[in-house]
Amino acid sequence: MLGWLHHITYSSGDIPLLNDSANNIAPSTKQLNDYAKILNINARYQPLKESGYRKIKGTHYEMIVDVGNIGPDYIPGHVHADTFNYELYINNKPFIVDTGLSTYEVNKRRQLERSTTSHNAVLVDV
Q: pTM above 0.85?
C-alpha cells in the first residue's frame, strides 16, 4: 500500500480528494512513510492500474484521473457519480479540484457531494 500511496500522492504531499477522501483525518503520506522507516518497512513499486486511477505528470502539472468502476460491487452505498472524474495540480498547487466528502449523514449535503455536479465529470441533459 505504501508503494501505491507514493504514486497517487501529489508532489506537494497532498492526496487526491476523490470518492470518500478527506484531508486531516489520517496521517499524511509523509508521516506514514516516516513511520514505515522506523518499522524497517520498505515500499515496493505498485502501479495504479488495478485501482482504476491514472496519474499524468508533466514538468509543471500533475493530474489524477478516475477511470475505474463506479464503486465496489460489494458496497454500492459508496458509489459516487464521478466516472472519469479528475483533479489537476499546476506548479504543486490545486487548480481543478474535487469537493471531497464532508459527511456520512443521510442528508442533502452528502447527496450533493456524491453527485456528478460536485465532480469534474461530464453532465449531460440536466
A: no
